[in-house]
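Lab intake sheet, docking and co-folding queue.

SAMPLE TYPE: protein with bound small molecule
LIGAND NAME: zinc ion
LIGAND FORMAT: SMILES
REQUESTED OUTPUT: full 3D complex as structure tokens
PRIORITY: normal
SUBMITTED BY: R.K., bench team

The fields below were copied directly from the construct record.
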Amino acid sequence: MQKPLSWFKHYPAVIILALLVFVGLFATHALAAYQQITIKANVVNVRQGPGLSYDVMSQANKGETMNVISQKNNWYQVRLSGDKIGWVASWLVDNTEVSATSNRVAKVTNSFANVRQSSSADSQLLGKLNQGDEITVLYQQNGWSQIKYNSAVGWVQSDLIEVSDQAPATVQKTTTAESESTDTDTSSSAIKSVTTQLDNTKLRTGPDVSYQYTQSYPANTKLTYINKSGTWYQVKDADGNTGYVASWVVTPSEKNEVVKTSATSLSEATIVLDAGHGGTDVGALSTKSKYEKDYTLATVDAIAKKLKAAGANVVLTRSNDSFVDLEPRPALANKLKADAFISVHFDSSNEANEASGTTTYYYSSSKDMSLAKAINNQTKTLPLNNRGIEYGNYQVLRDNQRPAVLLELGYINSDKDFSYISSANYQAKVADAVYTGLTDYFK
Ligand SMILES: [Zn+2]
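RESULT FIELD (auto-filled):
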């Protein structure tokens, strides 16, 4: 019985430290729980899942803000207008962390709780929760909690649930101010009208449910868009009545058509670029004993610049002259669930000036071939002879679970090839070829 007490006597510092760490973890969690992102690319796709393989459900414009629900594989799960949940690539958005209550686990404390389509007791019933059910609260306002419900969102009355952490009951005013200031006119100017999703959608005198409503509309009512105020739209109906509707109960129309053409999938792609060799592994040598490792790095830098400018998430297996073993290179692509892995090398023949040209290597025809074809089609435009696509049993390809190719971009011990390999002009041409190849591949 004396044991715990005596243990505390001997190790009070350890216990206090453990408590501090415990409290610290919770504080961090509370602060990071609610995040708002602002779209920084001209237009981004919102997809049904965290990756390029998922269908596009809508698009968002530069300056638009969204609330983050969760994060996976460098993608953000976000809450959209129209009560939908979708995913955007994290590198195409700016992340503004704000401290407020949201995205918390809560429990139903009442014997049951109705889940409704909007924050009003007369809105459509979506379903019912039972006492003890655990839910994720995304947002709270005016006595209502927006929750994750069946891969969309719904609303329950806040007094029927208990949120696990103590926190302010409403989102701080600064959040609204922020979304207003980052939400420039250009982002919303493409919206011509909005269409109600639900029966009994209220037109209110101000941008908040605390304002009185003057009209209510059935589902599929088209309203003319005037302006945006935080997460509310100022609109005008067919009879000329103006007021505000909540953005999440309406669908902005004629918005997708306006922006659709400028979105490219390359901007959503995660590309791992692998500069061959490095550090003590110098690679092959030119006739004047220049190292392959230096030109693979310079070429990868040129490719990276080009792809980053297109909005892609570019990750390098090495970014300086350091030794990186073979094993971690494909492992990085696997870990990131990269959409493509491209390894850059230069060939070498037994005798100097014996061979010339570029080759694209693949390992798995089912996984790698379409990427190999798309890129090799473009490396054909390079000034060196294209030797085609070949099977290559390289570890960086063999251990790769992601679409992967290894490019041999010329023979380093050919004086003719080396004059290209070592020139910034050729490196830029390679970057253009890889960029165009990837753009075709992701089409
Ligand atoms: Zn090599």
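REVIEWER NOTE: The radius of gyration is 28 Å.
SIGN-OFF: pending second check by T.M.
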